[in-house]
Amino acid sequence: MAQLMNRDEFRTALEDAIKGKSANKAPFSVAWASGKLSRDHLARWAENHYHYVGPFADYLAYIYANTPDTYTEAKDFLLQNMYEEELGGDRHTDLLIRFAEACGTTRERVENPDNMSPTTRGLQSWCYAVAMREHPVVAVAALVVGLESQVPSIYRKQTPTLREKYGFTDEEVEFFDLHIVSDEIHGERGYQIVLEHADTVELQQRCLKICEIGAQMRLLYTTALYYDYVAGDLPLTELDMAA
Question: How buried is residue 151: exposed, middle or buried, by Cβ count under 10 Å (0-12/13-18/19+)?
Fold first, then answer.
């Protein structure tokens, strides 16, 4: 029978729940980091990614509404995260659209939900469902720890390639530079919220499970981008990945 873990044990367990499921392992990510995608492929990524991360402030707002007032620091973090997404400087979605336009697509195509894949639609729906229905600490574990905390490690592999192999300018890749910094901070604060407020065996176990599911969801989403948009142009054998 599971027992209540101390903070160090629980932190390790949360990290282990994500380990081995990073979206860096997806063929789309491998192709990106090795400079084998075309700008058209990157444009399709942007058109999909907008519909996953675009509503992130909305996801957080649902969690905020469900969070007890006694969780003062957690509510402050959620509010600050929402502010940074939408109001703190350039809106994050506008930076993403700037990158998308540099890849050759348009704002209209990016904003049109008909241009996202079914898997992207599933990830977006899962994020909404978790934010609305789960205990707020479990929802933070899913969306901030399971998803958002992965971003710096993913973009650190991809962003240098955007400059060095694809020739994007600093302004065009600002979306990635910003999230390497901001999501590292957000991810750590998410960990601290979960470590502090998951104070029962049941809550700890629910947080661990949903972290694992969140990591699997992002890996599935990124893998689907390869099969939906890239596989016909770039087989797995060219990525040194087994079919």
Answer: buried
